[in-house]
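#random but structural
TW: two for the price of one
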Amino acid sequence: MNGRKVTVTYCDEFGVWPLVANDLSSRLPLKNLQWHPSSQRSERFIPSLEVDLQRFNFEQVPQPLLSAHTTYLNLYFVNCDDNDVYKNKVKKQIKTWVDLIATKKNQEWLIVYVAGQDTKRTNNYLGLKTTVFDKIRADFNQGKRDRCSYIRIVDSDGPSSDLWAAFIEKMKESILASFDMQVLQIQEDTRRLDMQRHMPGWNYCTFFILKEGLAQAFEIMTLYEDALIQYDELEASFFQVLRDKALAWFGHFGATDAGDDCGNILDFKRKDYRDLINKNIISVFDFRCYLFARQTRMLLKLQRIIEVCKRGQLFISSFIPAIRENEDVLVDNFLESWVFSACMNIVNECEPLSTNLIAADPNFIIVYSAVKADLLLTARRQLDKLGIKYKHLPVTEPFSIYLDSKVENINNDEIKSPPAKSKGSMTNEKLLEAINSVEAFDKMYMALSTRGIKSYDACYRPRAALTVHGDIAALKYIRDKLDEAVRIFESMIWRYDEQDWGSIENSLLVKCADSQKRLGKTDQFIESLLTLLKNAKWLSKEDATLYMEELLSNVYKLDVDIRRAFSPMFGITVVSIIDEQSAVESSSVEIFIENHLPKSLHCDKLCLRLVGNNPEQIWFDSSDLDLAPGKNKIHLTSKTSTSGNYVVEACEMYVGKLVFTHNFMKDGQKKRILRLNHDMNRLQATVSQPDQICLGERQQLAVHINTGKTRISNGKVLLESQMEGFSILKTDKVQAVIQASSGDNENNSKTLELDMLETGEIVLPTCEPEQNLQLLVAYEGSYTEFEYRLKTTVTYDSEGKQREFISAHSIHVTVPLVVTETSIFRETCVFLKVDVSCNGDHPVRILESKLKPSKIYAVENSSAVEKWDLTLFPKQAATFVYKLVKRDNIDHDLKPKVRFYAKYRTLKDEVEASIGTMLEKKLAQHHVTQHFTYVFSKVKEAFLSSVDYVSYGLTDVVHLDAFDAELCESFLLNRDLKTKVELLDLIEEFFEEHEAITVRTIKDNAPKPRTNAILFPLEVPTSKVLHTAELVLTDPEKDLLVSEACPCTLRIKQSSDWSLENNDTDNEFYYDIDVDYDNWLLSGKRRLRFISKPGEVFEFPVDLVPLKTGNLLLPAVRVSAISANVSAATVYVNSAQQVLVRAKSKTATFFVEQQQRFLQPQNTTAYAAQDISTPS
């Protein structure tokens, strides 16, 4: 049987086959067949069906028992135009052929009438059918089935002929009908035979052949999926027989024929398997191989090569136990040879098909490479077994992983080569070559491993690829190709580290470390030892100790630093900050280092890095430590003193050039925040507004440095701005005052000039313990800012170590007082009135005030009281008056302007200083003074910002807000629990004790509070046009009577004391008499313009008429300049002078018309400015 095509026979008794053969062949294969099964199967579509045309044989050839026939259709070609010939001869020939076909099962037939080109298909006249074709149809058509077709020898329509199309359609219908009948028959026979399974005499092989006939029928019709189902059902029934141990139909296990160990398991024609099955003499081995080959054929037809590989892997692995059970009757190494050959057969069969499938779908290569790689690796593992058996490989991992259990405990010395011909030898030539030659073995080993790696890489299975890489490296290692082995080991070990495959990693590391040691690669050797120790849980205690000793003996031979993570060799825990002066000399971080190694380790240096704002990072460290196995408590100190919240970032431990690191800020890990305080025993620096400032001059900052309990040298201080618009000015020298902190006596202080370097650093002098140093540093900043941010860094040497102090400051620059001045000129002096008020909402205590002279003015007279205790409230003003006289000679040692000096203290500073002192004492009683600076800053911000200082100034009592535990706890979050609870209790207790604080308590707790002073430069003119005006009565002895005119003279003189020297400029002025018309009438010029020079006197006559009796104030007189550029002042001699006006002895009544106040004077010139006149 062909097994691939449907057979169609043709009977040609009229010699027309040569005339139609080409036309028929050109229309094959048949296309687009639709099979509608008579059973309950769904419809099947056959896109293409190959047809094998064979001449019909009238001789009855007997078919083998249970063989599946492939003849589905028989064609009879007839060519006859004569009705008589048809009737007498042709009809009998056709009937004989039809009767013969009827004796064959499930075969269809068609009569094909072949007509000439001009022959008419039918000749109907009056309903009579007269053509031969019509007679054939009438004689042989049965029922509705039309078994006759009509074609022409040479059809004028060509390939699109309807006659041929109809003929082809009938061929397809007939083939499908025959196929359907055959399927129904086989299914019925199979069902009947299967129901007899438990009856005596039932034969599985007969059942197999019968059911396989159905599978082959499907295969012939290209229904490969249906065929595969039949073979899968046969496989399931075989396993059922296997479970029932009813293997009577199989003579023996088999696998004893020549070539069985290396035969192609996909070749179902390698043996006459069906004949063996028919004869019930097939072996289990041959039967399973044949069944798998048939299944594989269907899958390959369906182009499901991935499933071929998967089924192949499953078939091989499931068949191995059965082969192993029968190894005693098989040739040597049969199992290894068969598995190797089977894997390679499957791969080689699928490889050509995969090329087209990959071209159609690029993603196909991923899945295919995965199953192919597994088959290649299975084949390669057989080399491992053979290599160990024939001493090409040692009995060590990774070669011994897949050895049989009975071989695993055999040592290399006990392995003996088997006799050459004990039970026969395997026949796989490649394997025979490999076991006879180490070079051939290695070549094959490398080739298979390389193919497997490429396939694993293509399917993105890096772990599997790493395993094969390790096998290659191990092979290089045992062949003493150490350079190649190390290169491979090093390229793959780090990947196992990432994937946490410790046991596999160690097996590679042992060989890698040995290779590196033998090659003298110390750095790489150390790295391998470190990785082994990292995986110490996979090592024995003896091995771990050995590697530890190797590490310690080689760690100082390193050329470069090697960095490794703490875990899992070490564990680290940051406990807390210890800054109690009674517990430690300097602030420390307490940590626990847990040593998981089996031996103590000497650590040269241990460092902990904290990150924050200022500075961005700070290191705590300790040196020369011995870490015993288990937990080790360590205190780390820092050369940097700073304050703020810092996050624990990393830890580094140095052992020679070996550095162990730990990152505390990994993703998903909770941050550990520590609150650092400045070290109380070391140098501390603060920056603030100076105690005394002078407005109008370049401003300065006061830097206060306390040396602490140690002597310092080589000190430098650097101030850095932390905001825009604010900068520290660079000068050559910086003023400084140094004094002991034990007293305030000025005799203990010393003034110095310190150098400022180009970098902005100020060089500090050598200072003894407990000394205070104050520096005044000039700065430049925006006048709109009242708070500047500054970073202070002090570097110095102390006790033979270099240390530094770093702090970030917010400096509040405030001027709590506002001063306005008024100058009142007289002929020989100036009276200066100074008004002082609060600049803000907080009251200020004025403690002292005075006016400092300038180089032009001397202070001749001032208040006798200079020491005050005056509380100035907002919206209040205090006035101070000073008499100034012009110096005869200019004193160039004095400032150009007079300066008002005010010494003060704000009530806010007074209260905060006292509360701070009390709180510090409270903390000192419990030995937590180190937290005072931070705690008090937060207390001021949270609780003292709402204090009513106006009420305190009025009542001398401060009322504090109620304690808020939740608010207080919020700024103690980053403390350890013990410290947080203790501070919280102390602050709460403090507020309970001091709900109301009297001024007496405040003064007692701050007996010497800090005071501030401000020098306000005041602008007092040095020159001015001063006129002295005097209203002189003509007869001062005469009594003034009401309603009588009193002649007067207005005398005006320009003073020469306040005029500019060599000033000959003529300036225009005008006088203005301010008349109260309720008391006086004025006769004369009330306002008049004149030109005046220094020393010149003018007299203007006017008459005054009093309107009332009694003491009347004389009218005021003011002299002003016409030009706005001339500053003029007036000294009016008669200011506030009263004259007595008496009544007349006689009475009289006057009727006075309303006078015009402004009349244009006669014979006067009109000025461009304003006209000035008096009423007439």
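TW: number two ↓
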Amino acid sequence: MPNSVLWAVDLFGKVYTLSTAGQYWELCKDNRLEFKRVSAAMQCCWGIACDNQVYVYVCASDVPIRRREEAYENQVGPPSGGWCPGKPSPPNPHPARSDRWQWSDVSGLQQRPLDGVALPSPHWEWESDWYVDENFGGEPTEKGGWTYAIDFPATYTRDKKWNSCVRRRRWIRYRRYKSRDTWAKDDPKQLPDPFNDLSVGGWEITDEPVGRLSVWAVSLQGKVRSAHPNPEGSSWSLMDTPGEAVQISCGPHDLLWVTLWEGQALVREGINRNNPKGSSWSIVEPPTSENGIMHVSVGVGVVWAITKDRKVWFRRGVNSHNPCGTSWIEMVGDMMMVNVGLNDQVWGIGCEDRAMYFRQGVTQSELSGKTWKAIVASRESDRSHSGSSSSLLSGESCAPSDTDASLEAERLGPDQPVPAESVDGPRNPRDSLATGPGIGRTTEHAVEVTSLATPAPGPGLASTPAELPWTNIDLKEPKRAPSHSAAGFPETAGLSSLGLLPLGLEEPYGADDHSLWAWVSGGGCAVEAHSVLKWFTIQSGKHRSVWVKTGALQWWCDWKPHKWVDVRVALEQFTGLDGARDSILFIYYVVHEEKKYLHVFLNEVTLLVPVLNETKHSFALYTPERTRQRWPVHLAAATEQDMNDWLALLNLSCCESRRVHGRPSPQAIWSVTCKGDIFVSEPSPDLEASEHMLPCDQMFWRQMGGHLRVVEASGRGVVWGIGYDHTAWVYTGGYGGGLASSTSNIYTQSDVKCVYIYENQRWNPVTGYSSRGLPTDRYMWSDASGLQECTKAGTKPPSLQWTWVSDWSVDFSVPGGTDQEGWQYASDFPASYHGYKTMKDFVRRRCWARKCKLVTTGPWLEVAPITLGDVSIIPESPDANRSGHSIALWAVSDKGDVLCRLGVSELNPAGSSWLHVGTDQPFTSISIGACHQVWAVARDGSAFYRGSVSPTQPAGDCWYHIPSPPKQRLKQVSVGQTSVYALDENGNLWYRQGVTPSYPQGSSWEHVSNNVCRVSVGPLDQVWVIANKVQGSHGLSRGTVCHRTGVQPREPKGQGWDYGIGVSGACERRPSRPGVAWSCCVLWDPVLGCTGGPRWSPSGVWKHGLSPWPPAATADKALSFQGGWDHITVRANATRAFRSRSQETATDWSGEPGLPSTPSRVAGASQEAHGPVCC
């Protein structure tokens, strides 16, 4: 980094530097934090971050910052005897010989053992261990560095004399400051209270040691404190002031000015080398009595000030002998703040346009300068326009970042609704740049942020990009607004003064029209009076444009108690110099009458998903960090149309930012949520890399139109799906539908599903079975778990997109059977239900079903007439021979029949006809592997293998029965290149051991994990699952996409899980049933988090149900994010280079030819095969 740079903070809290020799703003190397104010010196910069903590940034250089630590070893001994260590007790200054500590400082009065010398902060490190200093007065010593004297203290010599009764030697150790080019946090223990402002100076005080700084600060309580850094600072000393301070400025010499809340200024007098803190305060009155001083900045011999009406003033007659000066002179321009740097050069930030200005013509003979000139240097390293801004939302960021704004808000507590009316927009910055910052002002408030302006479009504006349907959703492009008179200015320029956010330009004035600044510091910027700067040249080329969509939504707040709050949102889209587009979503809310915001860069968004909710038109927005937290940004619109408009626009903006367009690639990963929405992700080659694997929480999922329950894809672009009504659908090659979509291959699609509720009854000797249960019983009308109350009248369709198409009717097809009236009986709730009554049955239940229908559009065509329950397409590997053969597709009908589809190809993805494959019992799941190995699961939970399947014999010849894992009933199977995985009804995932080409049935099942809902094995034997529940730092996630890591040829089961996207559940609910005490427990699984979620129980009895939430009657209602992912297929993903043939030969499916390999056993999990059984 150059020695002379200008430091600045933009409205988003990011710190930039501008070199005097450059023309681009460079983002600070350590950009994890967001700052409010900075104060710079030549080689360092101090700042106050959004957490009100103090940080220091020390620029890297070839010369390290080193500090020597020393300790003295003292020994005593009579002339005739040997030497012995100093006394372990404190030294006595009064006896004839003042004995010292064995280890002490140079004075001998302070004990200093070597192991007691610690580093002052984590920002230091030791260069080496302790060693003896063998130099004395520039000459080497003898005998281990000892020096001798008659007594302590005395004159020491190198040589031992006859009267030398004491001796000592010095031990040295160096520590090095290691936190270079990074923001080092000051020790919070040394901060008595949070700071509001700080200033660095004092390095040019007469005879002051080189590198010595003075740091002055003002706390939020209005107290002034000072410290002397080393380099991060020592303890802060309190300075008494005659009033409450709000802002402070320290010059490089002995000038120190402070602004008071009353609008006066304090001047510190008596600052010199011997007294760097000064001796007394003097009061300076403001230029006018109507408007007090709100900001000051001092240099070597100048003082500049801003009054509350944003006027700029220059103080005349200031020098070291008269730090108070003589009088005020008003300057041209309206500014938010000014800063005086080296050589008394001045920078400022415009009041209205937030552009940065440099005061030209400042010389020693004319310290006030001549005119303001705008700095139009572009931001070369602005990550928000380069398509990658992950560092802007890191874990250490604080509000207003996406990551930690929620944490700050949680500490603050509940908020208040944001006012619906917006503040007037800013004037076109081009006008300010042309004529200076003093023309026109807008109303601003001393809050963290104000509402975005939405002025009406004017004539002559650039047209909206054709591919973006902005005009359909109330797009308003900002135009040149007239100037406004000043009104309602804040009393002070506090930390929260971020002002207005300009949204766009009628005619962009330069390459950096988006630069909006909040603070500037020139303490480390040396600009000579006649130097030539490149800051004022406008880059030629295509200009950037900004488009904005604003509106009112509701936000599920991040703090407790969680609730919906009214917010204002704004979507800004940029078009960069290279034509690339990027967008930022702002969410404005109010906390304790203070306006705040959080923002999300859309190039970091990984998912936008509608949320299944009965009362809200809501959707969730995920980023990698939010995915790990299991806590998305959750928004709701007033109407369904508004939600669809926002979803379509945000989805399109996300795709624009990531440059993802058109139909998915043949290698895409497809998935379906529990709501039936279809999502697709383009896999990265690093997704299945053995080293440096891409975390799956960074995968970008875009929504496709349509509605499905199951989706299956192949590497040749053929995709099939199955709806909730078991209708088969084939992908047409279009994209979208319901969202922004292609103009062809989009068709109407409908789906029908059933909603189930249960009628529960308990038997009593008087009335028999009735709806009056015990206080600890479940609701008499409930869901399947009994924990959610569901009545006929109160039960609604899954979302507002569904409509009822039938009335309630008894469902006689529930597992376990029913009697003639549909009742199932059991001894208690919950238990194993059966369709007949016995003497021990005291409870019963009956299932009621009602159909609802959804009509939408998407790139899907129906495959009639057979309805399906499951489908599987062969996962072809990259080196597969595709010549002349159709794509193998197997399916199971909703009746349990096994079918093979003939004639499927890229040109005819729907195929031509079905070929029935006989079975002796109904099947429920089927999967075909890359080598045409077909596995299936029957309704009784047993597994089967189909023999002799090949391209020339697509139906095979016979079924071989495969024993299930002990005491488990399988429900799904998935086959890859060589691996076979199965899933049982209890959510346990099993791997089939001993599968070889000569023994494809394998030998045993080995348990891999539990808490799994769905498994998909790809052509590279990669394993992906849908996990039931995954715990995050902020919430619980259901239906989570998980990737098996460490899958290798010799370790096909893998080693662990990488957690990806999943829809999160809300926070706790407290049941409010009178007279019943509820408690909760969470069962934790080390692999996939919570195995069952919170189990609510009255009177200490645990309720083991399917739902992780307590009953619906609650004292504090909370939102339940129903859903999550229900299905995923990676069977088309072969983006990683497949392992070499030599590796395959070496492993040979982990066994000798013709012999099953010996499986690794897990207690109670392995089941040896007794040989295939032909059906």
